[in-house]
Design a protein that fits this description.
Number of strands: 7
Distance between the termini: 70 Å
Structural class: alpha+beta
Largest sheet: 5 strands, antiparallel
Number of helices: 24
Radius of gyration: 34 Å
Helix content: 55-70%
Strand content: 5-15%
Length: about 500
């Protein structure tokens, strides 16, 4: 079923809280807020009797207790307003601090009358003036030998810690995806598999913001020895709206780790969440990933069309494979669509090949498939669509590093040249030329390490396209612009190549 538009998300690619607060939220908060009373009592008793060095740990535990209560209020009262949560948390923290102060003061004043402790604490709490007077007296004449200012500083520091800790969990709850249509929190689904750590989180986030359907392609299988990995959480709303959050978990010394958000509550419009979960689980299985990467035949049903294809009987192979392109089996459907696309391309039926490559890309959103779509569109005369697909291929490759960046450029340039559009290829050839100038070192070992073609291969393969697009003399000047921007060997090689080109013209 198509996803219902999320009216609260606006134009953002991410979930945006509506800012709403359920009716009766304050009453719910007051009800759950009573849980601070026993917590404050236990806290006051603990810091009165515990050694001084333990008191700070006890303070942190009390702050965490208040934060849990605030989170519970946000959950039960369906709070989607972060400001409301913060204000409520501060008020609850101050109330907790005030009440524990009354208990502590009652204990300090009546250590020999513990049976009256609760009553004394209640009296002090209900009479702020009496509590302030008792606190002033204790600050001036305390058993620890501290002056009034140090005692007040300790109390204020205590309040500050509680106020800082109280909103923490509740703030996170308030920005969790909420389904406004059903009036309840979105179902949180943790994908119980680890994925390979995403090395370029900024690029991946940008890619997913532009094309969220690329999610399966950026999540690759995790190798067990690797200390770092990625975690994925999905959110499902009853209205068909879905979101995804991805975190990188990086190991540190010992057993500690740090978590870095890649995307948080990114919208997934029009996504079949169950199919996505199945696809992610398959992607995360290293055995499945290796099978796909090795290109092993996944469907014995296609043995006959494969044999026909290898025998160059492309029309027959196409008809045999066509009956399987709608198969519910992922492997069979994927290979059948790929085979039909290849058969069409071998027969120069570029327009017909496009939909098959799109089906392949939907099932396997890999860089190589996006690049095939770009080349196919260009050969079909759809140059704008071809450039769009090439842009998607490059963005996806920046995230997955599936292929060397220059390999994408050279493939697309070749497609434009084959389509009779050498001039359109010049913008990409300019980029290739600048890559060599930026590298500066034309040594074959260096170029191989940088996954770049050898310099002489670049010159020989690009020359027919450049000279056809610019003309001979302007084309040679295009190459000459590299002189002085390469290493010595590169400048010599380029100079000799230019001389040879000039002599061939003169001859």
């Amino acid at each position: 079923m198509p996803a219902t538009p999320d009216v609260h998300a606006g134009k953002s690619a991410y979930y945006q809280p509506s800012g709403k607060v359920a009716r009766g939220a304050l009453l719910i908060g007051m009800g759950y807020g009573l849980a601070i009373v026993p917590g404050a009592f236990l806290y006051a008793c603990a810091i009165m009797r515990a050694p001084a060095w333990i008191n700070f740990i006890v303070l942190l535990m009390f702050g965490l207790w208040i934060a849990v209560v605030v989170d519970l209020v946000a959950l039960k009262a369906r709070i989607r307003n972060r400001v409301w949560v913060v204000r409520f948390a501060i008020a609850l923290a101050l109330c907790a601090w005030y009440f524990q102060w009354a208990v502590w003061m009652a204990m300090a004043m009546q250590r020999q009358h513990t049976g009256m402790l609760v009553q004394s604490a209640a009296v002090l709490a209900l009479h702020p003036g009496a509590l302030l007077a008792a606190a002033t007296e204790l600050a001036l004449h305390n058993a620890w030998g501290l002056g009034a200012l140090p005692m007040v500083a300790v109390w204020l520091m205590e309040a500050f810690v509680l106020v800082q800790m109280a909103p923490g969990l509740g703030q996170g709850r308030a920005v969790q995806p909420f389904c406004e249509a059903s009036g309840d929190w979105a179902e949180q689904i943790g994908v119980r598999r680890k994925f390979a750590c995403i090395d370029q989180p900024t690029e991946v986030a940008h890619l997913l913001e532009q094309a969220p359907q690329q999610l399966p392609s950026v999540l690759t299988a995790w190798s067990a020895p690797a200390p770092d990995y990625a975690e994925v959480t999905l959110y499902r709303c009853h209205a068909g709206i879905a979101y995804v959050s991805i975190w990188n978990v990086r190991a540190r010394r010992g057993s500690t780790s740090t978590t870095q958000a890649v995307v948080v509550a990114l919208r997934l419009p029009g996504v079949d969440l169950d199919a996505l979960i199945e696809k992610l689980i398959v992607r995360a299985d290293p055995r499945t990933a290796r099978t796909q990467d090795d290109g092993a035949p996944a469907a014995p049903e296609l043995a006959s069309p494969r044999a026909l294809f290898q025998a160059a009987r492309f029309a027959d192979a196409y008809l045999r494979a066509l009956v399987h392109v709608q198969s519910p089996q992922l492997g069979l459907r994927l290979e059948a669509n790929r085979l039909c696309a290849l058969c069409c391309m071998r027969q120069n039926r570029w327009v017909e090949a496009g939909p098959f490559w799109e089906a392949v890309f939907d099932d396997e959103p890999a860089v190589r498939n996006a690049l095939q779509l770009a080349a196919c569109a260009v050969m079909a005369g759809a140059f704008e669509a071809g450039h769009d697909w090439f842009g998607r291929a490059r963005a996806l490759n920046a995230a997955t590093r599936e292929q060397p960046p220059l390999a994408l450029l050279t493939t697309f340039v070749s497609a434009l040249d084959a389509a009779g559009r050498p001039a359109a290829a010049m913008r990409w050839l300019d980029e290739i030329r600048e890559s060599y100038c930026a590298c500066r070192d034309t040594d074959p070992t260096v170029l191989f390490a940088n996954r770049m073609p050898l310099f002489n291969e670049f010159l020989e393969r690009s020359a027919p396209i450049v000279l056809a697009a610019l003309g001979r003399q302007p084309g040679l000047r295009w190459y000459a612009a590299m002189l002085g921007r390469l290493d010595e060997a590169g400048n010599v090689e380029l100079g000799q190549w230019l001389d040879e080109q000039e002599r061939s013209v003169a001859g």
